[in-house]
Write a structure and sequence with these properties.
This protein has 499 residues and is of the alpha/beta class. Among the domains are: 193 residues, FAD/NAD(P)-binding domain; 99 residues, no CATH class. Helices cover 36% and strands 18% of the residues. The protein has 18 helices and 20 strands. The chain has a 7-stranded mixed beta sheet. Strand 12 and strand 13 form a beta hairpin. Helix 1 runs parallel beside helix 11, helix 1 runs parallel beside helix 18 and helix 2 packs parallel to helix 18. It is globular. The relative contact order is 0.19. It binds flavin-adenine dinucleotide.
Length: 499
């Protein structure tokens, strides 16, 4: 008799949603998390009275979160106190032009008339096109399992309207943005978001160009910090008997005759279950926890063909003044071509940039309780950072990089910042690996080019190991809070169907 029905490795959002939904369906579920906090990349830690989000800074496209709560017999309104982030962005372009985009599409059109009049006519058409696509994609592309080619082809049979958007599936993010917008200003407002998929505009798939619009459907911040989202799913799952143990690292999946039978912890303890759901990076899962000796040769070759996603250096600041920012997110952007150029000539060559760009997150704008009275939290997501640095290491560069980043943000977006910093913390790509065991500090699981997306991404129901399922950023639909919650629903549904 096994100890549990289901063991989940990792208490990231994908693991918690799949575990909680399975518990609500009557399964005896254990979640094992190596860190002391739940939530993985969507979590919040405290230092000297300041609460810093370790990764995700807002949640958008919240349909999958609502759906997961409904499976748990509750609703998002009951479980989370979400504040809308409006304006969505405070943009600072390369030439210093600064303006804000509100959530309202009509309000955005008014701003565009002033800052990029040539593109004013294109915006309403782009917004309407992407709104329709998003409504369709939410259930179909993002919400369906992609285990076999049949699932992929079946998508277009079940949702024939998707064919209308086929150019999004065959173009790059950059092609789509350039097709709609001709001015550098408008391209700069939408280009950076391709890095939310871990890639520059040139390499990112065209379907994700919907990000330029989807943020206008609503961008939210939970009262109490991003950790409130995973905590809500944990709380809901625990009501159905789900058990979550933190500080418990899984070192191996027990595999016999290509069937998962449980896990072995770092202290040697074995815990058995006929179903294992992995919420960790799929390369680590297959190559370390399962082991190449347990994989058919095609699966060995397949899993080695992936690359961990990009990482970023992130700097967390507690400050003793009210920053001159105009939105929860400020973006110091760069022209689209410079982002591509950065990728090939700096990031891919393992260098640190001279010219930076940055996303500034200001959570205390949405929730002042995250800092002591009269103080604020400002998190800097800096230019994507390579894991390896040529001729040096992140540990050696860390202090100088913090100083350089603060100087950059002080001069480009937040006058006075450098004189008001009271608390500093930083996660380099190497620190993300140390804290969350993400290989190479990968922040979105695996790199998400078209050839590693949908049916080409590691399947949510393992094709090599019976009883093994995947949730989280490494499987379809990929990285990002709504996507991993969707992956958690898909994994729970597949377990229900097959086990
Ligand atoms: C800097 C940054 C900014 C981001 N910004 C946004 C944003 O604004 N909006 C958005 O939607 N998304 C954002 N994301 C992406 C989003 O946070 C992630 O895609 C998502 O949270 C990943 O969830 P996951 O289910 O894949 O699990 P993960 O978050 O990867 O969690 C996996 C968990 O498994 C644990 N674990 C690993 N190995 C083991 C082991 N051997 N045994 C036990 N436990 C283990 C880890 O400790 C971790 O808690 C951001 C991410 C980062 C890092």
């Amino acid at each position: 008799m096994a100890d549990y029905d289901i063991i989940v490795i990792g208490a990231g959002l994908g693991g918690l949603t799949s575990g909680a939904i399975s518990a609500a369906r009557g399964r005896k579920v254990l979640i094992l998390e190596q860190s002391d906090l739940v939530g993985g990349c969507c979590s919040t830690f405290e230092k000297e009275g300041f609460h810093f989000d370790i990764g995700a800074s807002v949640v958008e496209v919240i349909g999958s979160l609502e759906k997961a709560f409904s499976f748990l017999g509750t609703s998002m309104d009951k479980e989370l106190d979400l504040s809308p982030c409006d304006p969505i962005y405070d943009y600072i372009l390369k030439d210093g032009t600064r303006f804000q985009f509100p959530i309202s599409s009509e309000g955005t059109a008014e701003v565009i008339k002033k800052v990029a009049p040539e593109d004013a006519a294109a915006w309403p058409a782009f917004a309407a096109y992407m709104k329709d696509f998003l409504e369709l994609a939410g259930d179909s592309v993002l919400g369906s399992p992609m285990v076999t080619m049949r699932d992929f082809a079946g998508l277009f049979v079940k949702y024939p309207a998707l064919l209308k958007y086929r150019e999004l599936f065959t173009s790059s993010y950059e092609d789509v943005i350039k097709k709609w917008f001709k001015t550098s200003a408008m391209q700069q407002t939408a280009a950076y978001q391709s890095f939310y998929l871990g890639l520059p505009p040139e390499l990112c798939g065209g379907v994700y160009a919907m990000l330029g619009y989807s943020e206008h459907e609503g961008s939210y911040y939970p009262h109490g910090g991003m950790i409130q989202i995973p905590l809500a799913y944990k709380r809901c799952g625990e009501k159905y008997g789900m058990e979550v143990r933190t500080g418990q690292r899984v070192d191996r999946v027990i595999v016999r005759n290509r069937t998962a039978e449980g896990v072995i912890l770092s202290d040697g303890t074995a815990i058995t279950a006929p179903v294992v759901i992995s919420n960790i990076n799929a390369m680590t899962l297959y190559l370390k926890l399962i082991g190449e000796e347990n994989l058919p040769w095609l699966a060995r070759v397949g899993i080695k063909s992936y690359e961990p996603s990009m990482s970023v250096p992130m700097i967390f600041l507690g400050v003793d003044y009210e920053p001159e920012l105009h939105a929860h997110h400020a973006l110091i952007s760069r022209p689209l071509e410079e982002l591509d150029d950065y990728w090939w000539n700096i990031y891919k060559k393992n260098k640190l940039p001279d010219d930076m760009f940055s996303l500034i997150c200001w959570p205390t704008e949405s929730d002042p309780s995250l800092a002591p009275v009269g103080h604020h939290v400002v998190n800097l997501i800096m230019t994507p950072g390579p894991y390896r640095l040529e001729g040096t290491t992140w540990d050696r560069e860390k202090e100088a990089y913090i100083e350089k980043s603060i100087d950059f943000v002080t001069s480009h977006a937040m006058p006075g910042l450098k004189d008001h910093v009271k608390v500093v913390e930083m996660c380099t790509p190497v620190d993300y690996e140390r804290r969350l065991l993400n290989p190479e500090g990968a922040i979105y699981g695996l790199q998400q080019e078209t050839t590693a997306s949908m049916v080409f991404r590691p399947a949510a129901k393992s094709k090599s190991i019976k009883g093994l399922y995947l949730s989280g950023a490494s499987t379809h639909p990929g990285g990002g809070v709504p996507a991993v919650v969707s992956s958690g629903i898909i994994a729970a549904d597949l377990v229900q169907k097959y086990e």
